[in-house]
Amino acid sequence: MAAVPVTLSILICCLLPPAVLSYGFPAALKLERVIPANHEMELSQLMARDKARHGRLLQSLGGVIDFPVDGTFDPFVVGLYYTKLRLGSPPKDFYVQVDTGSDVLWVSCASCNGCPQTSGLQIQLSFFDPGNSVTATPVSCSDQRCSWGIQSSDSGCSVQNNLCAYTFQYGDGSGTSGFYVSDVLQFDMIVGSSLVPNSTAQVVFGCSTSQTGDLVKSDRAVDGIFGFGQQGMSVISQLASQGLAPRVFSHCLKGENGGGGILVLGEIVEPNMVFTPLVPSQPHYNVNLLSISVNGQALPINPSVFSTSSGQGTIIDTGTTLAYLSEAAYVPFVEAITNAVSQSVRPVVSKGNQCYVIATSVGDIFPPVSLNFAGGASMFLNPQDYLIQQNNVGGTAVWCIGFQRIQNQGITILGDLVLKDKIFVYDLVGQRIGWANYDCSMSVNVSATSSSGRSEYVNAGQFSDNAAPQKPSMDIVGKTLMLLLMVINMFL
Predict the structure, then answer these.
(1) In angstroms, what CA-CA distances link 338 with 101, 130, 278, 367, 464?
(2) Phi-psi region for residue 3, left (φ > 0), alpha (ψ -120 to 50) or beta?
(3) Do the domains 271-437 and 64-266+447-482 match in fold?
(4) pTM of the full predicted structure?
(5) pLDDT in tens, 2-39
(6) What is the domain class of 271-437 according to CATH?
(7) Could you report the per-residue pLDDT of 237-276, keeping only the tens digit for each?
(8) How far lies 248's CA from each of 264, 277, 426, 432, 434, in Å?
(9) Whether the Cβ atoms of residue 409 and residue 312 lie closer than 8 Å to each other
(10) Residues recognised as catalytic
(11) 185 and 235 in contact (C-beta within 8 Å)?
């Protein structure tokens, strides 16, 4: 037993950053054995203890949940952003589209009819089999969690097998149906400067047994859709109700150089952020767009065109590739752009879209655009935020307006074309959305509110390979010590 203090001293010196050793922690720590001296303890008991410890760690420390992002806005390359999730026990990887326009997480089920088998995105598609996960349980009609889906009129009960079923129809005409299951979601959590890998939480998600429309096409096929809406069935709502994540999430979608980006459950902190209120009692992330300006001049659009009512309004949606305007807004928008560049480019119409033949950089010719929202917040668009390059031949490029018209509907949808190269924060507690233009290949700072009510900050280096390490704060030091004591506890 005399060798134990020496071992612990070495462990402390190796694990704690140098700054910790200078703060005068007690020289002696009282340690108590929690595993019997004869070391007779079932593996299942050890696993249960570890799971409980991980739960206490997450609940007590709080943190930021980080998801990897791949894909790009470019419709000629990918046209969507997706992330990788680990579901089930043992965990299995699933690639799912990031979609702020829907609420539910669903993945293709092993019994899926018509689901794609391969993907042109060079990813390995997977199928979820509840029978192969020891932690999976179907959600029955009598389960209170089934009512979460009923809130959005997507759920129903299967009389034959008493399963909580769902059917979704998306704006592009595609659809999916299946049943809900409850299983483990595995994720990485970042607390201060420490990574807590393989953290777990029980979540309800959809097991898709049928898909239609674009969902069955293999060129851009993914395993499912990750809905980030506000309803109770969304993963962010489920994790927040368990105290594992704040009711705020953020993304920064990279537009150029292969795309990718950042997606976190937490608030990206950026001094240039502007916020606009969310329109209350709406099924999507609706905001009040008041006007559109080109070259600093407001366009002659009746404000009622942007008003929010039944089936109308402005929606922020990462599940949409381009951007869409109602006819009354689209026509003056395109006319203003064309008038501003008519002396420098050759306007052409290609397949009904307004395009321009140019021989120089679009940034040198095309005017800035601003979308002006309630609360005095404006979203400034560079030419690449409203134009799509169709081709480039012999030094001459053809760029087209990326905004599309929606006829006979008073709806505006801001998709990835507009959302890329900006930080977006969805503050569900404050019921507001914020943004700031940003180079999404750079690092960010993220804040999350812990169970103690304090704001915890994660340094940008956690989300970037090229960020320099930061000097540990006293808050991080305390958490590091706590983690250290837990590690020591595992060896006793």
Answers:
(1) 31, 55, 32, 10, 39
(2) alpha
(3) yes
(4) 0.80
(5) 333 333 333 333 333 333 333 333 333 343 444 454 44
(6) mainly beta
(7) 999 998 888 899 999 999 987 899 999 999 999 999 999 9
(8) 9, 14, 6, 10, 11
(9) yes
(10) 99, 317
(11) yes
